[in-house]
## 1
Amino acid sequence: MKLADYLAREGISQKEFAKRAGLSTATVSLLVRGLVWVSRDAAAKIARASKGKVTADDFVQREAAE
């Protein structure tokens, strides 16, 4: 599940999620918008904070099958 979708579904603000995950609000914002790559550390924190609903694989853009 994409991080933005998780936040919307759970009704959690980026600021609140950042606090729960131990990340800066700026980092969460950049990740939601796809403007930076997720680090291993951040991916692990996000997975823990989302109880496994958002994983490192969710940050990988997959090409559509032709």
## 2
Amino acid sequence: MLVSALRSRSGAQIRWFLDWLVRTPSAVPSVECRLRKAGRYKLPLVPAQHASFSALASLGLQVVGTLGHVGLAQHRPTESLPKLPCGRALTSPLTHRCQGFLVSRFVMSIAELADATYSLDERFAPIRSEIAAEYAAPHNKPWIVGFSGGKDSTLVAHLVIEHLLSLPKSERNRAVHIVANDTLVESPLVIGHIRTALEEIRNAAAAFSLPVVVATTQPDGDHTFWVNLIGRGYPSPNRTFRWCTDRMKIQPTSRYVRDQAGLAGEVILLLGVRRSESATRAGVVARYDNGERLNKHNDLEGCLVFRPIVELDVDEVWEFLSEHRPPWGGSHDRLIQLYRNAGGGECPVVTSKDDAPSCGTSSSRFGCWTCTVVEKDKSLAGFVEAGFDEFTPLLGFRDWLVEIRNDPERRLARRRDGRITITSSGTFIPGPFNLATRSEILERLLALQEQVGHALVNDDEVIKIRELWVQDALASTARMKTEQEAVF
């Protein structure tokens, strides 16, 4: 539509298109992707009073040369038009962030714009073919789709469910597990989105008789975040002591994969990883790329890994999601809005320590609201900026956990096993939080839970925490008695 208008050099058509875009904001990501694909997509900024695409159309148009550039020359707007929300709500995550400003003109060559007419379905045809071929392979190894609720895992789930629906019932002969992980300290908005999406998939699977199992893994009750932090006194996680990832993400999902592999002999794990996500991700992909469709998982016996979207770039992911409704019903608008509000990415499904660096880094911002590995919780801060003021106290509590971590007055001298740790360089490493600090953290957490109106810690965790306190007190008393007896 846009390319057709530009080719015809019809100012009326372009004005109509831009005015339509104002009334259809959900189409903005797809259009932005296509304009990016055109090559030269320049984004000068203008004051917010010109902040609407239809206002840009009214600024005037000038077409220069047969293969020249189409620009929007500034003139005074002649009519009052509705305005788009400025900043993150319009542009993030697909274009430059505009702090109170919006784009003033699109500048690109008509020849380059012709390249933007590529068919997205053509780009996805090889991916769909790979999925179809693997599902039709002469074996019954179940599929496990790692679902984090983010854009990439959502795309993989979309393509898999779409393929199942395209098959006659007699050919849907392989079980597909859609598996999410709930650390029990997920950002409330994110876990709400994940639960809603899983319920939609579950309902669609039942309605269309799909061989789909929807599951959510959780950390073992003895190793939740609060049981370890408050019960055992583990200091808040940081880059050098990130005890949370293995216990809360790797172990629960790996346990599920191993259980299914034990039942079926072998499973295929579908992950929404992409080579272009980051240099680290590209390195991991390259390290385990054997040139075949399936790679052996590095840590999980009986698990083969299938990465169907590994060669896609982020714009193609967003363009697909914005142009295609999910096969389980509804739309991807909720997901798109979640990213706009948070202005970030998501912590991925993690099944090995090779993937662990993605959790708690600047490149992954959806995830645990308690994450003290990152310097700033950008997603939660983004939600607050987007109007979810009820989450402001969570930011303050998280920052307090960072603040008290290295306070020597709050830490025991001995580790939990009774040892005193001094490194080879002579640095003293304090032990866990003392009981007074653990008690204070729990008291503040329960008050915070009451304040925000969201479940932050469950009753079973509180019971386990208090049991650990009693065990620690008894162990400390016994140790002191033993030391006194040794002296005398």
## 3
Amino acid sequence: MTFRYRALFVGCSLLFVLGFVSLGQAQEGAKLYITPSKKEMEVKGRLLGKIKGPPNVVLILADDLGYADTGVYGSNSIPTPHIDALAKRGVRFTDAYVTAGTCSPSRAGLLSGRYQQRFGFEFNTAGAAITHRESRGLDPAVITFPEVLQHTGYATGMFGKWHLGTRSHFHPNTRGFDEFFGFLAGAHGYFPVKKEERVYSTVMRNKTHLKEPEYLTDAFARETVRFIHKNKDKPFFAYVPFNAVHTPIEASKKYLDRFLDVKNPQQKTYNAMVSALDDAVGAIVAALKETQTEKNTLVIFMNDNGGPVYTRVQSNAPLRLGKLFLFEGGIRVPMIMSWPGVLEAGSIYRQPVSSLDIYPTLCAAAGVVLPPGLKLDGVNLFPHLNGEIKTAPHEALFWSNGPNTAVRLGQWKMVQAHDHVWLFDLENDIGETKNLALAKPEILKTLQAKLKQWQGQMKPPAWPSKPNRRKVKVDGAIYELNI
């Protein structure tokens, strides 16, 4: 139906009737008809089309994914067409890091934009029961970026694994999320449960416990898709921290049947889990296309830490070791950012970046100016990605895990474990095979000084690591795993 503005001059009064605007001929004392001009309406439409509101944001976080377990990062055995396509449409990072080699502190750094050691979150919160009893979690005083986006009018939803506290004051609904569908603890099975679970273990919608009938990776994708459709007409933020591919190693027949030629049952199941994760990414991207929100949506895909070596199915090649370690395999992760028309499609960024950078980057995308009192350790990546700033986003990056510490400064990486120290030239030795600590004493001294300065700004751990601190040998030296 079309409408027309119609104005009637009666003395000095003017009566308006709703309609489209385009001036026609006016004669004094006569009726003025305002009718639409096709040409002018086309111009109007083009101009309005150029006006975009704040972008939507979808942050997808995989769990324990091997660095080389997607096609775009080198896998020849696990097809991941949807994750690969995301990289083709955006930026792939070669040197992306998280702030810890384990799940929980890594997530604390991601959501806070600050080194989690600044508020004592150095280790995992322990098992779910202890976490609940001891009230461990992300300090309620810390301002998360979901809280910032929610405060500025975004619809916010989380679908997946939380692992930042189980009590009500840690719950996602109190930390910036309008909607929550997932579980609070550090791990959960993928198939329907057969008995009631405790609050810290159960799958829940907001704070209502439920028994999810679907394979859990599919369920998290389903809920994310529903959220996108529901909020397509307003700015939305979806945080999707899948528990895939964390243990237990479980997959449904639909995905297992894709790897009938894989003889090792553990490897077959893991490959199927990655395939399910890739399908979930595809479903989320498809929802953006269906709702015509894709062009105004920033999508980020990354991992919470390196793939574990103890499962014997993940590949972090060419990186050394994996989850729980501060060598590259434990803290360097896949990361992709896609935003049509803003980020260059098919590009590669090779400077070191951090999960700390997600917070300020998302706020910049949303047009949010953070107050001076809210100090972050991350930086806005957009000026670096568009070439406005040529230098690296960070002078140095730091890690701490009990007696284990690490720092990266340019091409140099130092790892310390008790009284043993390694120095690597990552530019020429990405696999950390050649220890240059004795050959480059001045460089080592510089990195140690940087680390000491950083440590002086951090707080002691708010709780201890798990008491069973397994010790393993790395190059003949003792490396103690603090979880």
